[in-house]
Amino acid sequence: MSYFNREIETMPLEKLRALQEERLKKLVQKVYQKIPHYKQAFDELGLRPEDIRSIEDLHKIPFTYKVALRENYPFGLFAVPREEAVRLHCSSGTTGKPILVGYTQNDINLFAEVVARSLYAAGCRPGMLMQNAYGYGLFTGGLGLHYGAEKLGMTVLPISGGGTEKQIMLMQDFKSDAICCTPSYALTLAEHMKQKGMAPEEIPFKYAVLGAEPWTESVRAAVESGLGVKASNIYGLSEIIGPGVSQEDVDEKGTGSYIWEDHFFPEIVDKDTGAPLPYGKEGVLVFTTLTKEASPVLRYWTNDITSIYYDRSAKRSHIKMGPIIGRADDMLIIRGVNLFHTQVEAALDGLGLLSNNYQLVVSRSGSMDEVAVNVELDQDVFDILIQTTEDVLQHDSVLNAQKQLQHKIKSEIGLSMKVCIKIPQTIDRSEGGKLNRILDLRK
Ligand code: ADP
Predict the structure, then answer these.
(1) Mean of the pLDDT values across residues 153-181?
(2) Could you tell me if 176 and 247 lie in one domain?
(3) Is the pLDDT of residue 1 over 60?
(4) What pTM, to 2 d.p., does this model score?
(5) Comparing C-alpha atoms, which of 279, 242, 281 is closest to residue 260?
(6) Among 177, 187, 369, 421, which residue's beta carbon has the most beta carbons within 10 A?
């Protein structure tokens, strides 16, 4: 069975809008009646569910922020009795109470459907073997990809994240066709395989479906060449459903990821004022879940920064989003300049001597904030230099690479940063999950 749902995925825009509007109106009625938080928010503004007649009226509805999920923890934002939820998931938030979301059986089916759609767009096909290296458990990644891959008709290996040696052994024994994991863990795997002397051609993976953290084209290039795969982006968040909210088509790489907008209606708004922004402008991504039953949200403020736009030359009619530049709350403001770590990652692209293993160290000297970039030398370069050079890090070519990166950062980002080149294997790697690229010594 093919999982390309032509009727939905290539639906003409007017038809798609009509479907979204019909779903939106029902949703608004439902959340107003079932969820006290929304009733109160509407009543305070004198807004009635009947006032939302079309997508154009959406902006009248106030945003739902993460704090509302915390304040109504655990079941206060459920639109169904807890007993009707067949599954609960939590976001991987590191501080305080987690964010809890519930799924009815229909929600689980929807989750599997959008992930199956996503995997198909990523190049996966029924019968292929998916090595699912997303974490299983409360995190939506593991089970989300699992059910979606099964729905597509793949054979799923539920190996979860980490255990790199075992990942490599089973991948060889079972000839896994595809892997899904975080991009940083894909880099870890590629590195381990190289250390074991495996050439990319010997690695059976054909596709890598990567998400859960921001990544750039330089990481794509390293994963594709290191694992011999076609790598595509999968995006999502627990509050909306989990991974599978959006997905890049493997043949349309670099042009953005389709948002499955028959279920998740996106908006981009100004991060300071909340005003809606036109297509193509960068701002905060906001979602309304059009069909979810247990934990629906209206205008959920994801905090993720990107842009959305229609791509008329694409295979599907659904709107696309660009790569996530970062989360608004992870944005550093250094001497008045906004900085996301992905900007430094992008600057690393094309600097041959350096690897993609980097970390930003933020510190304060007097009243000035400073950022240092620690980045490892490429392993092959190191191996060659060490044969003839006593202090590799003082070699002319290394000092040159350091200067080049410093210049590139200054001209592309507008900030002066100290660049420290490190020998390989000295900077933290992903051991299976999301990798923190920032060490903030000011905290
Ligand atoms: P947490 O907020 O605790 O990390 P989730 O595990 O639900 O919760 O992760 C969702 C977040 O992960 C998104 O809001 C986004 O910041 C990030 N994310 C997920 N997929 C991607 C992706 N493909 N690119 C960039 N960031 C992503």
Answers:
(1) 98
(2) yes
(3) no
(4) 0.97
(5) 242
(6) 187
